[in-house]
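ok here's S9 family peptidase:
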Amino acid sequence: MIKQSLISAAIASSLFLTGCQTTHTSTPQVKEQITPASVVATPVDFGGEQITLEQAMAHPDWLGRKPQNEFWAADSKTVVFNQKQAGSDLKDTFIVANNTAPTKVLLSQLHSVGAKNAVYSSNGEYQVYTFKGNVFAKTISTGDIKQLTFSSESAFQLQFLNSGDVAYRVGNTFYTVNVGTGQSKELTKLHLSDAPKGLAAPSGFIAEEQHKLIEYVALTHKNSLDREQHTKAVNEQNSTVANSHFYLGKGKALVSASLSPAGDKLIAVVTDKTRWNVETDIMPNYVSQNGDIDPVQARRRVAQAKAVNSEVVLLDLATKAQTSLSYDTLPGYDEDVLADVKKENAEAIGETYQSEKSPREINLIRDWGWSQSAIQWNSTGSEVAVMLEAWDNKDRWLATVDFEQQEFVSQHRLHDDAWVNYVYNDFGWLNNTDTLYYLSEESGYSHIYTKPLDGRATQLTSGNYVVSNLTLSKDNSAIYYKANVEHPGLYEIYRVDPTTGKTETLTDLNGMTDYSLSPDGTKLLLNHSKIMMPNELYVADAKPGATATRLTNTVSDTFLNKKLIAPKIVAVPSSHTDQPVYAKVYYPADYVEGEGGKKRKAVIFNHGAGYLQNSHMGWSVYFREFMFHSLLASEGYVVMDMDYRASKGYGRDWRTAIYRQMGKPEVEDLVDGVKWMAEYANVDTNAVGTYGGSYGGFMTFMALFTQPDLFQAGAALRPVTDWAYYNTGYTSNILNHPDVDPIAYRRSSPIYHAQGLKNDLLINAPMIDDNVFFQDVVRLVQRLIELEKEDFETAIYPVEPHGFVQPSSWLDEYRRIYKLFQENL
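and the structure:
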């Protein structure tokens, strides 16, 4: 159950961050460059009970079960959220309204609370959503609920049409339903096949003679033809018959389909249907339910990827016209953007590359950060915008469709010589206008722009900070967003007027804050955490200076009683960029600033994902590591956690520093980290270790292999060893494709640098990892054996996926890491 008593204000204030304060009026200003020696104020250490390794690696239920999947109910007064059950993966649903205690929703009433992706009628009368695949409509003023479908088929992609009817999709069929009457009808059906050809006339000498000579054959053919023509006439002349079918081609896969709010047009995107893997892509599970070896299917590797091209099809539901839209109106659609890369690789093998223009493969953009469609209609359905990206990852286009000319019109081209970001691609239309709004990194940071169809773009936000998570108000008076204006690790909520560009600060919570705007646009639901406190829910009025009211308190007393060391956020000067490298530093419990005497030993943790931010002021996804680092610091270690180059939150150049050279800039930053600890934290540079998982495991390899004297020991967990074996969506952005740029893969993959290993290495590998395959470790271990290396050992985890699940596995892994550092530093 959720704890109902709130922590007292006095205790809470001692736990929370006391760092940068934001202003509530005018445009946010970027602070002056933070000096290397400066630190951001963090909470004092709290609790009196020492953390143990066993407790840190225990099932996270002991920390408290934080609220998840929160959203506003239709009344804009009630908040709905999930909470995990103790000792189970199942989740309960709770509602909280008017500052009352959270109430658990009965299973019989789960259909009544709405949904996170609910849609609303333009007049504010109805909310429509799905529950278990069925469509429900709620009258907002009364709370009355009407079930509009009752089916085992799952409805999705709900939207209100301009007529007031609700459209939804089941499979590849679009339906409409009238909220008042409940009457539904099939609007159109998409077929992934060729159009039926109808009854064919006799063809060939034998067939033609058969119809002339045998009266029965001729009569049977005539009767069949009459029936076919009669059916066609009924379908065309009788309005009660569903008769809107489109045939998108045999052997095609439907990528996306979007219906106009007017209900008269539809954009469908198709591509050639292919397997998601090949038959040899398997991941053996040695500990299966029945005792056999289970050959689990696994995704293909980037080295196996083939170029994919999509076809955008405009369907006119009134005229039944079907038109494929060409990409040749997009600027740069046929440029050889990889000419220099191809030339370098050709010269490396003694060949010459001749650049030629050729149409590029182009597809709908896939943004890893949002759930919106890459196809967006304006309010009336008179205009549609589509966001496209090139297969080579170098271009993103925001294009509209000229329905008369039946062609794309480019509204914005974002080109990046490295790669276009796979987040920060939010876009849409201002309500009831023909003006687009969108995010772009063209300035070096993600910012908001608006653009009328026939006008120039206007930049609404600017500065050395990152904007994300856009929400447009119904009256177009504001675009709400999340940004790290005051400090790279501090995220608050803001809004900007798209007409005047005036920006207002809405929250001042000092930590990591996400939000959702209430349906009536008057309140913010905030999911907020601090560096020492997990996520909780708050509500505030959507206006500057509003007080945030806390709704949940799920943190356990057991956690609050643990003695944990609060890390400091420091700015480590970089030897390679003007920007510092931000890092968390855990100082030993007995550390005194400027101390002399015996030098300290230290550990640097490398976060995973590459493009992830961990030196921020909110609760970390690496909560086990946070407690492990606190434990190490309590035993005299200095622990550093760096947002090395490639990390999220620091702008385009920070992100793309690793283009075609993964592992080099990041390790250079680790070198600067060790230097900083030696100068500012009394660390012995001959007693420093490093560790990390996934991308952090890759970095551990690259550090020990390419800078063998930097660390005396390292632990690589679920590590990438050869990027040609990783997935396409992530790797091809940074290193291009192996057939195009083998130089980048050899330069960036640890297996090619293994001969540099000099100091102790621990490799921990889960065996049913469908992200970084166990094969990565197997190949590297064989390479190390053949190189006759002695100072490495491997631990395997037979039942674990990429992110460990079993507490026993977590404990075994971290016992080994702890022992590695104890014995070698």
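+1. The mean pLDDT is 92.
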